[in-house]
């Protein structure tokens, strides 16, 4: 089984917008954001899993802005996730009535930690 699949369980993706909506592929987004994370073990943390929430806005040109931590995981993981989200890449843009729109997302992530 893929290492990412073993340590990740994404609960949901909440879409927040006033003017319309867009969808992102939850699985591929989570995998791309978390694929290179350096995670602590259960023993180091004293917990079986960690969870956090991260918000960002997909701009009309496909870039991300306003990347923020809404609920921290701690252990340096938040900084790693923000760094991954800040990596330049084009995101799908919401199109409403033929015009691109800004869309805000809240991405909750739950990570099940390794035993060793």
How would you concisely characterize the structure shown here?
The protein has 116 residues and is an alpha+beta fold.
Describe the model.
There is one protein chain. The longest helix has 10 residues, at 77-86. The radius of gyration is 15 Å and the shape is elongated. Strands 1, 2, 3, 4 and 7 form a five-stranded antiparallel sheet that branches. A two-stranded antiparallel sheet has the order 5-6. It has helices spanning 3-7, 26-34, 42-45, 77-86, and strands spanning 8-9, 14-16, 49-58, 64-71, 94-96, 99-101, 103-112. The protein has one domain (3-112): 2-Layer Sandwich (TolA/TonB C-terminal domain). The protein is 24% helix and 34% strand. It is α+β, with helices and mostly antiparallel strands.
Helix-strand blueprint:
Layout (H helix, E strand, L loop, with lengths): L2 H5 E2 L4 E3 L9 H9 L7 H4 L3 E10 L5 E8 L5 H10 L7 E3 L2 E3 L1 E10 L4
Antiparallel strand pairs: 1-7, 2-7, 3-4, 3-7, 5-6
Which key phrases capture this entry?
single chain; 116 residues; alpha+beta; TolA/TonB C-terminal domain; 5-stranded antiparallel beta sheet; two-stranded antiparallel ribbon; 7 strands; 24% helix; elongated; disordered N terminus
Q: Please give the CATH architecture.
A: 2-Layer Sandwich
Strand content: 25-35%
State the helix count. Answer: 4
Mean pLDDT: 78
Name the shape in a single word: elongated
DSSP strand tally = 7
Order of helices and strands: HEEHHEEHEEE
Instruction: Give me the Rg, rounded.
Output: 15 Å
Give the class from helix and strand content and strand pairing: alpha+beta
> What ranges have pLDDT less than 50 throughout 5 or more consecutive residues?
1-22
Please give the CATH class. Answer: Alpha Beta
Distance between the termini: 17 Å
Q: What's the helical proportion of residues? A: 10-25%
Main sheet: strands, sense, barrel: 5 strands, antiparallel
Tally of domains:
1
Q: Which topology does CATH recognise?
A: TolA/TonB C-terminal domain
């Amino acid at each position: 089984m893929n290492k990412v699949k073993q340590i990740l369980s994404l609960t949901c993706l909440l879409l927040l917008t006033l003017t319309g909506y867009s969808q992102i592929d939850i699985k591929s987004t989570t995998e791309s954001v978390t694929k290179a994370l350096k995670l602590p073990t259960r023993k180091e943390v004293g917990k079986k899993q960690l969870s956090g929430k991260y918000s960002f806005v997909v701009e009309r040109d496909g870039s991300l802005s306003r990347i923020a931590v809404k609920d921290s995981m701690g252990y340096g993981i938040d900084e790693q996730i923000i760094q991954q989200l800040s990596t330049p890449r084009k995101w799908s843009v919401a199109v409403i009535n033929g015009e691109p729109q800004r869309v805000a997302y809240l991405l909750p992530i739950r990570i099940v930690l390794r035993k060793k």
